[in-house]
Amino acid sequence: MGQTHIDRFFSSKANMNGVRLFIAWLFINTTFCCNSQNAERDIILINVDTLDRIGIANLVKVINKQEPKVIAIDLQFVHSTEYSKDWLLFNELSKCKSLVMSSLIGDYTGEEIEYKRFVEESQPQFLTNAKTGFTNTVTERDGFETLRRFSTKELVDGQIEYHFAIRIVMEYDSTKAMNFVRQSPKIVFVDYKGGQRKFKTLLSTEVLNRKRSLGEIKGKIVMLGFLGPGNEDKFYTPLNKDSKEPDMYGLEYLAHILAQVLESN
Questions:
Q1: 240-251: per-residue pLDDT in tens?
Q2: Is there a contact between 114 and 141 (Cβ–Cβ < 8 Å)?
Q3: Residues 6+ apart with CB under 8 A from 21
Q4: Cα angle for residues 207, 96, 59 (degrees, 5° grid)
Q5: CA-CA-CA-CA torsion for 126, 111, 255, 180, nearest 10 degrees?
Q6: Is 50 exceeded by the pLDDT of residue 21?
Q7: Which end of the chain has less Cβ packing within 10 Å, N or C?
Q8: Average pLDDT for residues 1-17, to the nearest whole number?
């Protein structure tokens, strides 16, 4: 039989090279897009709002029953309260299979120096079953303290402390986390994806009152923290279109970094 147009096209070496390049480009872009979507699907944010320690303990209890891969808490329980409240919180935290809690480095500047202490960290009993990661921010000197960058790790009193998001990924996929640390400079720009990232967000009341299906929590990273209302723990980012008001809560900022690390190759 005679050659068809397709036969003649594929018989050309130049055209074959072009096809190979196109297939490679398609694979890379498809893989990246899937990684991006998967990273965001693997993260669930829960707003604790004004919950006290009993409320947070009950929230953790409900979440634990759904078998998440990691629970990450962007809160510090610095002071002791009533024994019954503290014991209940300790008891529920101790049942977490993989728990990451936030720390704050004292006198933090973002410089590559050895820091002496943590200025805020939860009471020791709440950390017995947890790994910790710092949530200090690297801010710009632009009048707004815009959050464009983050530090992957710091030396604190002779020990390496990793960023909160990186510590979470260490619990979720340790190889990916350490590859990111090795391949990145100490200070990294946050990839906000132009504001296109969308994270599943739940209210604590929805979880506690079972107003939403919680089956999607299984195998996911669940981040607990404050998401309003109000401007407490809210920051300016490069996505801000109105310089009069901060545009992103700290928990959302941390989720963006978390997704960035999860997407890394």
A1: 987 789 999 999
A2: no
A3: none
A4: 20
A5: -100
A6: no
A7: N
A8: 48
> Which segments within 165-226 are labelled E, that is strand?
187-189, 200-203, 221-225
The CA-atom distances, in angstroms, between 189 and each of 149, 192, 222, 238 are 4, 9, 24, 11
Give the three-state DSSP class for 107. coil
CB proximity list for 120: less than 8 A, separation 6 or greater: 76, 78, 103, 104
Distance CA 101, CA 81 (A): 19
pLDDT of residue 65: 95
Positions of E strands within the chain: 43-47, 70-73, 99-105, 114-115, 118-120, 130-134, 138-139, 147-151, 153-156, 159-162, 187-189, 200-203, 221-225, 234-235, 248-249
